[in-house]
Amino acid sequence: MYSALSLREAILDNLKSRTWRAGQRLPTERALSGQFGLSRTTVRRVLAELKERGLITQTVGSGTYVSAEVAQALAELGSGDAPLATSPAELMSARLVLEPAIIAMVVGNATAADFSRMEACCDRGEAAATLEEFELWDGRLHEAIADAAHNAFISAVFQRMNEVRAQGEWGMLKRRSATPERRLDYQREHRQLVAALKDRDGARAVQLCLEHLAHVRRNLLGY
After folding, report:
1. pLDDT tens, 120-136?
2. Can you tell me the distance from the alpha carbon of 47 to that of 53, in angstroms, rounded to the nearest whole number?
């Protein structure tokens, strides 16, 4: 069984080896989904990440293509950007330290556009038809909160954490622990956290953040 990480690495291998060259069209989402046994949502998430990094371009109604600047994008990606070998327990420990710690910066720096992005992530998560899609928007919400600190280093750290969430072990634990009731709990906790941030209530936002992460850890890891 392949993971999102497997798909990402396969595409990168084709780009690095120049099997796929600048301007060349990639296989369709449907083809990649079938080849790797992944949902279309997961394929889109991987392609969206590679697009953000300048490796590929996408044209509605035409398809996905290798970027004209792929060589430069690969050079910037560098060997230091390889996926982190991090366990779910390590990730949750890091999140419990890092996410509450940035709340003050978010409260001080977030703009109306940041709050709109957070609420859009909540909307998309609540409308998600599958667990994978919900997990995608869950991760993007936490990334949107981090970006609202308006600190490039913090944004980079949270992008890396979302890469870890895309790895197979995290997804396996999510699927094992998922229930409709727990998803509803997470959705409610997300809304409460965003509301506290919008109110610029740092103390309440920190409390809600800690409670949410402790809840996720308990459901995933049992403690």
Report:
1. 999 999 999 988 889 88
2. 10
